[in-house]
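Hello again,

I reread your note about wanting to compare the complex against the isolated chains. To keep things tidy I'm splitting this into two emails, and this first one only covers the full assembly. Below are the input lines as submitted, including protein chains and any nucleic acid or small-molecule components. They are followed by the predicted structure of everything together. The single-chain runs will come separately.
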Amino acid sequence: MASFDVHAIGVVESPLRDLDAAPRQVDEGAPAAWLVFEPEVLAGLQNLHVGDEVIVLTWLDRARRDVLSVHPRGDPARQLEGVFSTRSPHRPNPIGLHRVEITALDGRRVRVGSLEAIDGTPILDLKPVLSGEIGER
Amino acid sequence: MASFDVHAIGVVESPLRDLDAAPRQVDEGAPAAWLVFEPEVLAGLQNLHVGDEVIVLTWLDRARRDVLSVHPRGDPARQLEGVFSTRSPHRPNPIGLHRVEITALDGRRVRVGSLEAIDGTPILDLKPVLSGEIGER
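Full-complex prediction:
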């Protein structure tokens, strides 16, 4: 298989310190967090505004990459499912997708509401939500 | 910056052969395509069904990674914007996000409607759409 190199462009700063305490889905609740970007990518943050809905892509660096089947939501009472029909962090390329709202901007620090990623999680990308494509909340 | 290695878990098979012909947004129209997965990840495809809405993550291997500002939709008449407020393929980590519907399943081949990625684009991941998080179309 071909492979490619991704770089952390920033890091999550969150009160969530513990993988087990991290909510598994947005509807289980998660704290607000800061996205702290590297100075090198500051120019890419132009035109972001408070109130924007964005998708944060993270690198789930504690995930297992050799797992193809999981119990949904980690519940052993539920039948094993293929990882691509779940949002398990454990998957060949453990990239997290998080839809969040920007609540404050301070230079290379971007405040977002309800992010289900632990403190120190590397950030790979930030994209706007497109209405029609990703849809309304 | 920390860096990580991602692997292609499959490839897009599409009649779209040309970057310039590729639509820039879903609403500009795109053909149906096959996602052809590597035999090694077949077990991960269990529990996918026709009609599922999924998010395909791709590696946009022809993108420029040294670009932080772009003209939206490649239109030079529009003012430069930071890449993180656009969906430009040109960005530090050129990961594409594509929301699609599964229209057929055939072993390790998954047919999807309207995918704006050219033939041969590497696939990194496939995730279900979560209602509430990514939202309804």
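For quick reference: The CA atoms of residues 2 and 94 of chain B lie 16 Å apart.

B.
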